[in-house]
Amino acid sequence: MAAPSGGVNCEEFAEFQELLKVMRTIDDRIVHELNTTVPTASFAGKIDASQTCKQLYESLMAAHASREKVIKNCIAQTSEVVKNLREEREKNLDDLTLLKQLRKEQTKLKWMQSELNVEEVVNDRSWKVFNERCRIHFKPPKNE
């Protein structure tokens, strides 16, 4: 599932997390998807498992790429906000509101960066399950 066409709201971390949750649906449901679409050996003749695996592979690749793009885009945007707040703070050392805002944005940036680690775990799990079920039906291109 791609990101909404209106762009991503990186300002609210809860919205950012909710978007990632929705975008991770394909990974959350991969076991079910494989169980219902890729036949076991006894049913192998009734379904074209290679085509099913190829389509799932392409869907996973697209989902992982779009999530990585969303996460990195929000990290870049938030990093820029943090940088600007730091510069502003250096000019106004007595401004406690600026300090609170800076700390809030720094915390949000750390959370967003941690989503890259979550993403790695989610992706690894999905590829493991995919390879267990699809390796005999479909070989991904070598360059990926």
TrEMBL record:
Belongs to the MIX23 family. This is Protein MIX23. It comes from the Eukaryota. Pfam families: MIX23. InterPro entries: MIX23. GO terms for cellular component: mitochondrial intermembrane space.
